[in-house]
């Protein structure tokens, strides 16, 4: 009789979100497997910016101390993306990551409602089905496969919209030391071209240059400013109108991350996280930190249901719905920042975003101090 391999959770993608989610689940004692389409771990991109909210999550995952070389109290720091990927991967048990497994499509088994994941080589990972002469039971599928996500396509999320931004990033190494302050430096010209610099250590400096495309920028900004000032004064004391504006904004948000309805972010026992759920504008600098938050919250929600109900199938949906509920307003917040930075949204959408940020999130920098909660939360039985 063939041995059955019990795998509670499949995660697609070994980016920062996928590995952080896998590690969070591992810390909660939930076995999982991470599938990666390439033959090696993906560490594309020069660096990753971690905000205070991101450091909180890394501490919850137990790897914050391993990254202390980059940390300077509770501020924004930059690190090599490959270093973060390596530390997250090395913290996982051997065999957690499976390379060379690309998922092309996802369907639900009509009998069990478990996800069936079609792989590039024609094989399938399916609950109680053969896979390379073994049996694998899959209960939950989490798509952390970035913007062009096969899992997001299965969930029918809105397609991503290209950002009107051209950016170049890189590192400069100063063998004798750079002499810059260990802080973020930024200059801009006419709000179209921006240069930023952030030292990583005493010799290595991360930098970027970007240019935004702003059609009709001057009259657009002027009209927006006038309307926001007048409209916000009218609705500031009308809770019902604020509520309607919030629902209206959530219907179309985010332009880069595809919808906020919880029934779209979850189908059966399938959901998404990270860029597959919410693509972040690089100028917001929250892509990595927000993705790590997703992993912490998702693991906490699944662990709560597994502890109380021992993972009966019907509870997967409840756990994933709780995850979506906890992340919804956070995604709205960050997506509003994205919409204000981007130059392409319709004027009305831009006005609504501005008003909501003024009324609900008055401190622009508060998004960096956000606390998604503890991974080790205690739940009452």
Automatic annotation (TrEMBL):
Source species, domain of life: Eukaryota
UniProt-listed InterPro entries: FAD-bd, MOase
FAD-binding domain boundaries: 7-66, 135-329
Keyword Plastid in annotation: no
Keywords in alphabetical order: Monooxygenase, Oxidoreductase
GO molecular function, one term: FAD binding
Annotated signal sequence range: none
Statement: the UniProt record of this protein carries the keyword Heme: no
Name of the protein in its database record: FAD-binding domain-containing protein
